[in-house]
Amino acid sequence: MSFANLSRLAQERPLRMLLVNAGEADALTWAGLVQPLRGAAAILGPDLLQLDVRTPAEALLGQPGWHLALLVADETQAAPPPELCRAVIERCRSAQFWGGVGAAVLWLADAGVMGGVRVALPWALYADTEEISDRAILTPHLFEIDGRHLSCCGGAASIDFALTLVECLFGATVQASIKEALCVERVRGHEERQRVALQARFGALQPKLSEAVTLMEANIEEPLSTDDIANLVGLSRRQLERLFKQYLGSLPSRYYLELRLQRARQLLLDTNNSIVQVGLMCGFSSGSHFSTAFGALFGNTPREERQRKLMPPTA
């Protein structure tokens, strides 16, 4: 996932953002998204950011012209009437970047507008995805940015998503001010996984896949080979690779590498272990290999990651 395309919106003055709340005003998914963005709007002022908050019916009023539009709903929220839902989705799609948060991600996929797009769906809604498997690529991540499409699983992840948008569009200083105001210590990255997403989606239908991922998660420090994992779950290497490609869009080796690197990033952020120790704890016997692989996935080296997090925010 790359923020390069989205970051170009930082040049827009003012940046116009539409949030359509199709759920309850006090739902965690909505509150977690709107509070950081309202904080950014208060800090930046209307000359830099105009935040437009509307109901689905209100979203159809006036002329479009937003740079970023998101349809938001808690995972328990039923979709609006079909005609209204389609009209709101089309209004959101008129923005340069658009997408959904929470249950709205499923509504977008049901509408057929997320074909071939990686989306982050609330794990509790995975049981409702049988008919959309050919319309979107479901991932277990907290949020995704794929081209012009944005999605977030909602719940507490909405806060991480909103704060990531703030940093991408307005910089780390603005993000740091909002984190302090909301008492947020750490912003989780998009690549972190919903804890029960894989089991919820594959536990019954693809137990071998779920078992393979569990083995990977339990063997971070001393990684298993793909052949070892295949043997342990009772599959051939080719069968295992086919499962990963079909359901996770990746080869087992690549998925395992990213899993280890995600763990390494978490350790760099949350512990005082040295960079060498972190590499060893995540199965990298070579410091250069660890640094190269980390940079390829995250765009900076382990040392830069730690230095960035240790650096106090500028005034």
From TrEMBL:
- InterPro entries in the record: AraC_XylS_family_regulators (IPR050204), Class_I_gatase-like (IPR029062), Homeodomain-like_sf (IPR009057), HTH_AraC (IPR018060), HTH_AraC-typ_CS (IPR018062)
SUPFAM superfamilies, per database record: Class I glutamine amidotransferase-like (SSF52317), Homeodomain-like (SSF46689)
Example of a GO MF term: DNA-binding transcription factor activity
* Entry keyword Membrane: no
Domain named HTH araC/xylS-type: residues: 210-308
Keywords, A to Z, come to: DNA-binding, Transcription, Transcription regulation
Q: Which Gene3D superfamilies match?
A: 3.40.50.880, Homeodomain-like
Pfam (any one): HTH_18
Q: Which domain of life is it from?
A: Bacteria
Residues that span the membrane, as ranges: none
According to UniProt, the name of this protein is: Transcriptional regulator GlxA family, contains an amidase domain and an AraC-type DNA-binding HTH domain
Q: Which organism is it from?
A: Rugamonas rubra
